[in-house]
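Example record for the data management plan.
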Amino acid sequence: MYTYETKYHRPKTLAEAAEIFASSDEPAYLSGGHTLIPAMKGRLAAPANLIDVRRIPELSGLSVAADRIVIGAATTHATVAGSGEIAAAIPALCGLAGSIGDVQVRHVGTIGGSVANNDPAADYPSAVLSLDATIHTDRRAISSDDYFAGLYTTALEEGEILVRLEFKIPEIAGYAKFRNPASRYSLAASFVSKLRDGSVRVAITGAGNSGVFRWTEAEEALSARLEPGVLDGLHLDPADMMGDMHASGEYRAHLAELMTRRAVANIGGVHID
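Corresponding structural encoding:
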């Protein structure tokens, strides 16, 4: 039988969490656990010390200002999906959160856990990148363009804790997602935002070999006219897309293109397949 010993910690403050991490052998932070726990079950990870940060007060809560939304890292998907304040400011962000997994997943999974792990099929990274968000940690602030570094890889340093995310409130935004019917993870999804400075940002998740990415050609076309038709003739390279038992690179490229068109067609809300 495959066994190993794991010690569970529940710190009360960020400082205590950082201290446990620094003084422990093979530590790992735990939030919602929807990436780490499956990795442990599949024997892809075996941390000797699990540090549960979900109940640290500094990581909770959300606030909405005139030009931005700030969401604590331990805020659940259900909280984001059900927030009237966020729905009024960025309805597409509420729709994205409400499309994640099922009811049980949404009441346990957290926005910080999703962004910290950068799972290639996760939803939130597309919103972070498209809305030009700033990622605040216990050490610094990181722009979204500098944060995502590849599959399951981010700019977070060893022991660094994601504290909150600061989203720009756009002029308008839309999200479209094609789900795996079993897991509801994204086979391909697109978040399209027109920011208040007039720039358009298109972020694709669930499809790329390197995880979430910006589709710059689509951004240029949509900057001229925010209509699906301007994307005619634009195509993603299948060689840059993931291929697995669920979908080939060619199919994911097609889905990502289609989801971008549907995000624009449903701008101001969401479209879920």
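Summary line stored alongside the record: The two ends are 41 Å apart (CA to CA).
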